[in-house]
């Protein structure tokens, strides 16, 4: 159940040292750089786990951006929602996903689970130890930023305007 006064949350997660594993952080950074969103909290969750517990608690809406393990071709962009998201985190691609799985379980136990949960993900091409996205996923970044803008402004009715007022918080 969402607490009164809490904003929706956009959370980017991933490891920037493992190629495409950092896509969630990079997409959220670009979204924050491009848009002013006074009705939305934005957090770079990096590889944090239980440190995100208070950040996710009692939110009306949480949107997580991450790479996702799937049989779909590399570069496939997908949305998951509500009960699909914890199921996704049970099939781990990276250690931070174990942490998020634990956070979501803890929020259920404490009665602080977000009212709604979404995940915007993309299938990685590489998660090798190398800084930087592959060309394939770098090319998907713009599409994902636009999907977030459309989701928050058109589907959720939140104020999303062109701007340069970066507000992203770090949780590394």
Give an overview of the whole structure.
The protein has 172 residues and is of the alpha/beta class. The chain has one domain (8-170): 3-Layer(aba) Sandwich (Rossmann fold). The chain has five helices and eight strands. The chain has helices spanning 23-34, 53-56, 84-90, 95-110, 135-155; strands at 8-13, 35-36, 40-46, 62-67, 77-81, 117-122, 161-162, 169-170. Helix 1 (23-34) crosses helix 5. The protein is globular and about 40 Å long. The mean pLDDT is 90.
SSE topology:
Blueprint: E1 8-13, H1 23-34, E2 35-36, E3 40-46, H2 53-56, E4 62-67, E5 77-81, H3 84-90, H4 95-110, E6 117-122, H5 135-155, E7 161-162, E8 169-170
Parallel strand pairs: 1-3, 1-4, 3-8, 4-6
Antiparallel strand pairs: 2-7, 5-6
> What helical percentage do the residues reach?
25-40%
Second rung of CATH, namely the architecture: 3-Layer(aba) Sandwich
Say which CATH homologous superfamily is assigned: HybD-like
* Count of individual beta strands: 8
Q: What string gives the helices and strands in order?
A: EHEEHEEHHEHEE
Approximately what portion of the residues adopt beta-strand conformation?
Answer: 15-25%
Q: According to CATH, what is the class?
A: Alpha Beta
Runs with pLDDT <50, length 5+? none
Our count of domains comes out at: 1
Question: How far is the N terminus from the C terminus?
Answer: 27 Å
| CATH topology-level name | Rossmann fold
- The dominant shape is globular
Overall pLDDT level? 90
How would you sum up the major sheet?
6 strands, mixed
So how many helices?
A: 5
Structural class: alpha/beta
Q: From the alpha-carbon coordinates, what is the Rg to the nearest angstrom?
A: 15 Å
**Order of strands in the sheet with most strands:** 5-6-4-1-3-8
């Amino acid at each position: 159940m969402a607490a009164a006064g809490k904003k929706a949350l956009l959370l980017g997660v991933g490891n920037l040292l493992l190629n495409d594993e950092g896509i969630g952080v990079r997409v959220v950074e670009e979204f924050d750089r491009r848009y002013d969103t006074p009705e939305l909290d934005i957090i770079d969750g990096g590889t944090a786990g239980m440190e995100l517990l208070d950040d996710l608690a009692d939110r009306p809406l949480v949107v997580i951006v991450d790479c996702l393990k799937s049989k779909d071709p590399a570069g496939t962009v997908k949305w998951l929602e509500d009960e699909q998201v914890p199921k996704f985190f049970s099939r781990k691609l990276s250690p931070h996903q174990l942490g998020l799985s634990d956070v979501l379980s803890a929020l259920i136990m404490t009665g602080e689970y977000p009212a709604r949960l979404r995940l915007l993900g993309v299938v990685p091409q590489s998660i090798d130890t190398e800084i930087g996205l592959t060309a394939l996923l770098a090319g998907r970044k713009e599409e994902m930023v636009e999907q977030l803008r459309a989701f928050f402004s058109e589907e959720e009715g939140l104020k999303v305007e062109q701007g340069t007022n970066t507000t992203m918080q770090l949780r590394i």
